[in-house]
Specification:
The structure holds 2 protein chains of 2 kinds.
Chain A lengths: L1 H19 L5 E3 L2 E3 L1 H18 L12 H10 L27 E4 L2 E5 L12 H14 L14 H14 L3 E5 L2 H12 L5 E5 L4 H10 L2 E5 L4 H14 L8 E6 L11 H11 L2 E5 L14 H5 L8 E5 L9 E5 L1 H10 L1 H4 L6 H16 L2 H16 L6 E3 L7 E6 L6 H19 L1 E2 L1 E2 L13 E5 L6 H19 L1
Chain B lengths: L5 H31 L17 H7 L17 E8 L8 E11 L15 H12 L14 H14 L3 E5 L2 H12 L5 E5 L4 H10 L2 E5 L4 H14 L11 E6 L11 H10 L3 E5 L14 H5 L8 E5 L9 E5 L1 H10 L1 H5 L5 H15 L6 H23 L11 E7 L3 H11 L2 E2 L1 E3 L9 E6 L6 H18 L11 H10 L1
Parallel strand pairs in B: 2-11, 4-5, 4-6, 6-7, 7-8
Antiparallel strand pairs in B: 1-2, 3-9, 8-9, 10-13, 12-13
Classes of the chains: A alpha/beta, B alpha/beta.
Amino acid sequence: MASEIMNATANALVWISSAFDAPTRAVVFGVPINGHLVVEALLVVVILFQLTRKSYKPPKKPLTEKEIDELCDDWVPEPLTPQITEELMIEPPTLESAAGPHAIVDGKEVVNFASANYLGLIGNDKVTDSCVGAMEKYGVGSCGPRGFYGTIDVHLDCEAKISKFLGTPDSILYSYGISTIFSVIPAFCKKGDIIVADEGVHWAVQNGLYLSRSTVVYFKHNDMKSLEATLEKVTGRSKHPEKVRRYIVAEAIYQNSGQIAPLDEIVRLKEKYRFRIILDESHSFGVLGNSGRGLAEYCGVPIEKIDIITAGMGNALATDGGFCTGSVRVVDHQRLSSSGYVFSASLPPYLASAAISAVDYLEANPSVLSNLRANVATLLSELSDVPGLVRTSHTLSPIIFLKLKKSTGSDKTDMHVLDSIANQVLKEDSVLIVSTKRSTLDKCHLPLGLRLFVSAAHSESGLLKAAASLKRVAGSVLS
Amino acid sequence: MVRLPYLTALTTLLSYGILFVFGHLRDFFRKIFDWSKSNNLQGYAPICLGYEDFYTRRLYLRIQDCFGRPISSAPDSWFDVVERYSNDNNKTLHRTEKTTKCLNLGSYNYLGFAAADEYCTPRVIESLKQYSVSTCSTRVDGGTTKLHTELEELVARFVGKPAAVLFGMGYVTNSAIIPALIGKGGLIISDSLNHNSIVNGARGSGATVRVFQHNNAPHLEEVLREQIAHGQPRTHRPWKKIIVIIEGIYSMEGELCKLPEIIAVCKKYKVYTYLDEAHSIGAVGQTGRGVCELLGVDTADIDIMMGTFTKSFGSCGGYIAASKEIIQHLKRTCPAHLYATSMSPPAVQQVISAMKVILGEDGTNRGAKKLAQIRENSNFFRSELQKMGFEVLGDNDSPIMPIMLYNPAKIPAFSRECLHQNVAIVTVAFPATPLLLARARICISAAHSREDLIKALEVISKVGDLVGIKYFPVEPVKPNKVEHLKKIE
C-alpha cells in the first residue's frame, strides 16, 4: 500500500517537474514560453474568474399581496382619544352677561376676576357705538384673506393708529390673538437659525418655535445671568455670525407666572451679542408705562431698539385679534411670508374699529392707568398674608399669580386642590377666580396657581371682598 | 383635470425664464451699486439672505397692485374698491380717497350674508349690547357665554354629529386640533393639495406625514397598504393610529372630493378620517349641509368634521364636530380652547342667526331660496364660460370656478383690464398654485342676480379676447351638414 502511494506521488512529482522544465516550445514577442509560465497564467485566470463572481446575497423577497392583506387585517389602531375619567368632567362657568367687573354667572351676580379687561373697556359706550356703526356699514365678517379683497379701510386705519401710538414706522394686523406669535416666529426664523427663549413662554410661542425648525435653547425663567451664560455659549459655537440669524424671544408680562421681563438688561445683552429681540406684549400693551405704551416706555428703552413687538388685542384693548409692529422691512416681509396672515381670513371690521376706539380712549384718558395701578396695589396688600399661597407675580403686573407654598408633588393633585379653592370661592362668596389649566401639549414646567386679573373698573369693595373670601377658603382647604 | 396645450406651456416657461434673467441682472447691478455704499447692518445677519425673497422682490412687486386691493364697503355683490397709485413703479402703493363701484367676484360670500342682513343684523347688535365686543378671557376661564353653548348645539345638529366645539379662527382650528389628536408614532396621510393650515397642523403634531395624489382613491389604498405593512420608518413597529385628511371643496381647483370612494377605502383599513369643509359647509347640498349631503355619505362614517364660519355664514371662526368622547377630550387638551380668547359674542350670534335662516327656523324660506340661487348661479356661470371657450376647472354645483391663465403676463393684464371695466377679479399665481398654472378664481354668491352674472360674462369674454385666454374654442354647430342631409332625403 505505502509503496504504491509512494510510487504515485513520485510519478506526479516527476510529471510536474517535467512540465516546469519543459523546453521552450514557442517564442512569443521575444519572451520564451517556459512550462512554469503556463501554470502561472492558468493561476492568474483562475484568480480573475473568482474575483468577478458576485458575493453571496440572500435573494430579496418583497411582501406578497396576501401577506400585506394579512398584516392589514391584523393591525389594530389605538382609539382616537383616550378614555375620559370622571374627575376631568368639570364644566366652566357660563356667563349670562358681559364679562365686566360684575357679571352674571349661572343666575347670580359675581365679582369677576377672570377677564383680562385691564382698562375696563368692556361695556364702554364709545366702543360699542363704533362697533354698531361698523356692523351696519360692513356686516360682521370680512369674507376673504387680506390679499383677495379682504383688506377693508378700517384695517389700514387701525394699523396706522397703532403704529402712531407706539411710535414705530409700520404695523400689521392679524385676525386672532394667539395666531400672531406663532405666525411671526416661523416667518423670520428658518432652519439653521438660533433662538434663545425663556422657558416660561406660553404655548403659542412654543408652537411657533417648533414650527420654525430652528435651533432653540431655553434659559431659566426671567433669570438674566442664565440668559447671559446661554448667549455666551451659543455665540461661542456659531461660526458664521453674518449668515445665521439670531433671536431672543421673551414676553413682557409672562402669562404663566406674572413676572415682568427686565427689558433694559435684555437690550444691553442683545447689543453685546448681536441678537434681535422678539417681544410678546399681549398683557403689557395698554398697561405698563405712563401712557400705556408698554414695556419699552416703562423701562425707558427707545422703541427702535426692539426689533419685533407682537401683541394680542384680547386683553387691555377688549377686542380680538393681534398686531405686530417694527421697522418697515420687518412688517413688509410678513405680508407675503406669514402664514397666519396670508392664508387666513382677515379680522372682522367691527373688531378693528373697536380697537381704534380703544386706543383713542387710552390716549384721551391716561388716568385709567393710575386707577389700574391703585387697584393692583390695594389687592396685593390685602393678599400678602393668604395662608398656604405665595405670590410669584411682579408688584406692577395686573395678573396676580398665587402658587401653592407647599406643592403636593404632582401637577394633577395640585390642580385638584386649586380647582376646589376656586369652586368654593365662587359658590360661597360669588367671586370668580380661575386656576391655571395646562394642556398636555404644553412644555412649560412652571408651577400651577391661581390667577386674578385686576381691572381698572373694579371697585374697592369688590377687591376687599375677593381678598377676604380667598383668605378664608384657602385657610380652610389648605390647613 | 388641467389640459395644458404644448405651445402655452412653452411660452409660459419662456416668459418665466425672461423674468428670472432680468431679475438676476437687476440683483447683480444692485449688488455692485450697494458695494460702494456702506452696509448699515452692523454685524447682524439680514432678515432675508440671498435668494430667499427673490420671487417677492423681482416678480411679485411688479404686479403688486393686483393683490391686496382695499375696499371701503361691505363685501357684498357690488362693493367700493379704493383706488391706489404708485410713484416708484409699484414698490410702494398709496391710498387715495376715490373709490370705484365694482362687481364682486372675489369674496367668499356664498350665501350673501356678508352685508347687513334683515334678520341677522338687529340680533347681532342686540347681542353686542348685552355681551359687549369680547369676553377678554379663554373658554375655560370665564369666556363661555350662553351664546357659545347654544351655537355648539346648533352646529352639531346642523352638521349631523353628536357634539361640536367652537374656535375663534379657522386657521387655528386646524393647527391646534391635529396635534391634540395624534403625536409621535402616528401617521397622517393628507391630500397633496391640502390647505396651509392643515400642513402646519400636521407638521406641528410630530407625526409622520405622507401625501397621496389629489383625489385618487386607488393611490390612497396603495399608500395605506404599504405603510401599514411596513410600519414606522426604521423601527418597523406598527403605527399607533393613522388619520387621513381631505377637504370638501378644494379652494384652488373648485373640485369636490371623491368622498364615497375615499371613505370606503378608509373603513376597509380601519383608519380615521378628518374632513375639512371650510368652503363646502352651507354652500352645497340640498339643505346646505355640505359635501356629505351632496354625495350621499352618512356623517357617522367620518370621524371628525371641521368647518369655518367665514365663508357661508358671513362671520369668523371655526368648529369641530365629532362624537361626544372626542369633543370632551379636545375640550380638555386642545391649546386653542385653553389658551385663546373665546370667539367674540356678536360673531357667535351672527352664525346662530345665519344657521337659523338656512334651516328655515326663522319663519321664512329665504334659506332655501338662497341655496337654490347659488346652485343655479354656479351652474349657469360655469356652462356659459365653457361655451365661450375658457378653460374652467371644478365640478358642477361647486361655487368656485378657476379660469386658467398660465402666462405670467396675462395675470396683471386680465386683472387690471377687468378692474377698468368695473369687475373685481382675484388672480392667483405661484406659490399658492404650481408655477405654470396661474389662474383667475371666481367665487359666485347667492347675492348675485342674473343681470350681474350676464354683465360679468360680457366683461370676461371681452377681456378674455383681448388677453387671449380662450384656449379651447367650441366649434359652432355647422348648419350645412343638416341641409346636406335634407337634400339627400
